[in-house]
Each structure stands twice: as structure tokens, then as C-alpha cells.
Amino acid sequence: MPNESETQDPKVYAERQKLAEGIFADVVKNPDSMKDVGASKGSQDVMYNTYVEATLDQLPMFYKTNINELSSIQSGTVYPTLQTGLYHMSISAGEDGNLDTQTLQGFTIVYYKGKKEVDVESIPLGDVLSYADKNKLTANRSVLKSFDGKTQDVRYDAATKSVVFV
Amino acid sequence: MPKQDGYDVTVFKVASGADAEASLKAIQNGERKDVEEVINGWKALTDITAVVPSYVYDDANKVALFKELDASYIVKVREIKKENDTIYPSVTIPVATEQKGNEIVTALKHKTLYSFDDILVSDSLRRVPAKDPKTDAILNGAYFKYASVGQ
User: Fold this and answer.
1) Of B97, B93, B90, whose CA–CA distance to A135 is shortest?
2) Cα gap A76→A91, rounded to integer Å
3) Per-domain boundaries in chain A
4) Residue span of the structural domain in which B18 resides
């Protein structure tokens, strides 16, 4: 039956930690087994995830807060310690209109596969708004017409002394 | 529903007894006088005529006054989207200097892409065994044998 308890059972927590430490030990010994080990334990609330060439915004919150440490190790290796705490939190509107918060937390084993720097040709609107929000910049939104197929881009506009996304 | 032209529009209702022509002049000058905003944003023509039945778009007169039975309305059209146009969002970020602007453009265009695998072991269970509320014993299949749709 669904677990609707909102309190953490210390006994369950200890059991889960022991399970995670066991998986961590196995993965450290044989990193290639990560997918098989993780994917085979789905029924035990163990989740295997893979992210390929994702921007920081596309990664779960756990990465956003720890990216410098997690990406500081040699690529192709397992991060040397088991990570604990929040993995991701999402907020969405429920059927009744109230905001529903869902959190994923526990013990995370991380395998770093590398990173690369790229200059992108076009930028999604969300990236511009997100950047402005993070850097406390005023972003004035409007709606313009365009012909089909036009690619939107960001540039500095000297006439209006603004960064424009059109 | 057939496609329609879209209007980026604000419709103002002139207050009862107010000088509608004076309100029109104020709005033409970017001000407001004795008016109440009743429509704002991208709308279809039918949305506008539902409020202002006599409304007709005039390309040479984008801010215009219409007198209806219940009140006078001022319609201000900022932009029109033809049915075959695509509308798209635009964002403007004012900056103090060109250098700052170029820094923002570089930051937006330059991306770091990461690749990771991970295993998350949840610290609690999403599902737990059903237990007898009196004895706390885990219920087995026998407990459920009387359950049926009819009961």
C-alpha cells in the first residue's frame, strides 16, 4: 500500500543507508556494473538515471548545488563518497489547484562521465528569463510577429542599450 | 474553429458622463483619462467585437473611439498577427554598458554540458506492507479473500 507517512522512520532510514552503502561498494569495485546494479533494484525504490550532455538547468537540484565538486573528479570515475540528502524537488499544481511539492531524497552514487564547453547557435527563451532572474536583471517581455522558420537569437542592441532576444 | 487574425490590443471603456473625445486624446498621448481597461493582450477580432460590436480595424487609425449603446470604447491596437504569421516571444534586458551587454550574450551562448550516471537509493519507501491495525502483523493474502466489488 502507498506509504503516506510524513515522518522518517529511523529503522527504515538505517536499512536504506545500509542498502545504499552496499550498492556503492559494488559500483566502486566495478563502475561498469552501475546500470545493471541500479536498474535491477527498481522495486526496492532504487533509481538509475543517466544524463548525457545536459546543461546545469536540465539536471536535478542535487547537481545544481554540488556541480563544482561533482565535476572536479576525473571523468570516467565514481565520486568517492556516497552523497546524502535532497536529490530533486518539483512543485506542480494539483487537480484541486493547490501546489503539490514532491521531493526525492536519499543516498546518491554518482558516476562522472565528463563535461564539454560549447557555444550554442540559438538559445531558448527559458534560458534568457532564467539568466535574468538569477542575476536580478529586469527582463521586459513582449510578443512579436515572425515568419515561420525564423530562429531566435540573443544579441546586444546598441540603439536601445539592451540585450535583446528576438 | 477557423483561424483568425490576432490583435495585440487594449480596449478602454469610457466612464459614464465623461468626455470621450478627451479620453481618446489622452490615450493617443500615452495617458489615461476617465477610462477603465476592459481588454488587454492578444485577442481575436471576435473577442473585441463581443465588447465593441461596431469595431472595425483601420490601419491608419490604430487608436479609435467607438460609441456603443451602453458606453463609449477606445480601442488601441499595438500589433496585428495575420492568420499565417507566427507570433513569438521577445525579451529585452536593459544594461548600463555595451561591455555588460556583451558579457550577458557570451554567458547565455556559452554552455557547459555535463554527463553523469547516478543511482538514487530513496531514504524511505514509497510503498509499505499492509498491516493489521490491531496486531501490527503483515497481512497475507487470506485477509483479502473476502474483498469483492459487490461488498
Assistant:
1) B93
2) 33
3) 10-112, 125-165
4) 6-81
| CA-derived radius of gyration, chain B | 31
Give the list of residues 6+ apart from residue B122 with CB closer than 8 angstroms, or none: A16, A45, A46, A47, A104, A105, A106
* CA dist., res. B109 & res. A122, Å (int): 8
SS3 A107: strand
- d(CA A93, nearest CA chain B) in Å: 21
Per-residue model confidence as pLDDT tens digits over B39-64? 998 888 999 999 999 999 998 899 99
User: What confidence tens digit (pLDDT) does each residue in A86-117 have?
Assistant: 999 888 777 777 777 888 999 999 999 999 99
Cell of B120: 538514487
Q: Look at residue B18 and tell me if it is in a domain.
A: yes
Interface residue of B120, B136, B138 to substitute, partner A, most A CBs within 10 Å: B120
The question of ipTM being above 0.85 is answered as: no
Q: Looking at the 3D structure of chain B, how many domains does it have?
A: 1
Say if the Cβ atoms of B111 and A55 lie within 8 Å.
Answer: yes
For residue B102, the distance in angstroms to the closest alpha carbon of chain A comes to 6
Per the confidence metrics, is the pTM higher than 0.80? no
